[in-house]
């Protein structure tokens, strides 16, 4: 949680246990994908698929405000340096990899349309929030 708070310039970041439980109980597609990946040996040696899914569901259950989410997006836009604190939170490589993943699959089933029509890395959340990064310019979060 501290890492995410650093990305958000120490603004509000919380955890919603009800969302976590709901995600675990209704995550059949995620479990199916996890088992498929396990069968294809996509997990590193020693990694546990259930633990990985549990961590994913925890990440899906983080709560942020528009302000804290936009600072997180701005940290990505600023090459991993939080614009509020000036602290390097992410390496340049981590930012590049994160933005590439956001661009290619951050909007789930609509990632291709988003990439084609908007052309910017974005991530949608369980709540309906969208985090958008304009590299070297700014970060945006809206519902």
UniProtKB/TrEMBL annotation:
GO biological process, one term: glutamate biosynthetic process
Keywords on record: Hydrolase
Pfam families assigned to the protein according to its UniProt record, in alphabetical order: Glutaminase
Hydrolase among keywords: yes
Protein name stated in the entry: glutaminase
Reaction equations catalysed: L-glutamine + H2O = L-glutamate + NH4(+)
E.C. no: 3.5.1.2
Gene Ontology MF term list: glutaminase activity
Family membership: Belongs to the glutaminase family.
Superkingdom in the source lineage: Eukaryota
